[in-house]
Design a protein that fits this description.
143 residues, alpha+beta, three-stranded antiparallel beta sheet, 3 strands
């Protein structure tokens, strides 16, 4: 009897963990089209955007990337916007040149870890649009 209870309890835990994961995944992926750049914003979202999003700073010593995303949950919108901005930073790094040793086929994971540690969220704004949250983020990384 004890083993049957443990078996069903384990199945219940597995089921509950899977449903939470599916819910989080559906929240995260259902609005993939909301990962957009400034050129894809509608006029209301562009008007509500902070000035630093409309005019991304430029510097000789820092890479900047700005992005926006929306979701029914503010934390998911923030994560989506940060990931979009990280993709933009990666594109800027790739165009500037690969990390040391990458061309030689060396393992650059330690160097990439150092690069990732240098990325900071310098500005963030979140706005509620009806039932959805829109988050604007500005990431920066020293060159």
């Amino acid at each position: 009897m004890k083993y049957i209870f443990l078996f069903f309890f384990t199945l219940l835990l597995i089921y509950l963990s899977c449903t939470e994961k599916k819910q989080a995944e559906s929240d995260f992926t259902k609005n993939d089209s909301t990962l957009i750049t400034i050129s894809g914003l509608d006029s209301a979202a562009l008007e509500a955007a902070p000035e630093w999003f409309k005019n991304i700073p430029e510097s000789d010593t820092v890479y900047y990337a700005a992005a926006t995303a929306k979701s029914s949950r503010a934390n998911i919108a923030r994560d989506k916007a940060i990931m979009k901005a990280q993709v933009e930073l990666a594109a800027k790094l790739r165009s500037a040149g690969s990390p040391k040793g990458a061309d030689a086929g060396d393992d650059t994971s330690d160097e990439l870890d150092e690069v990732i540690k240098n990325i900071i969220t310098s500005k963030q704004t979140q706005i509620q649009e009806g039932k959805l949250w829109r988050v604007y983020v500005l990431l920066e990384m020293r060159k």
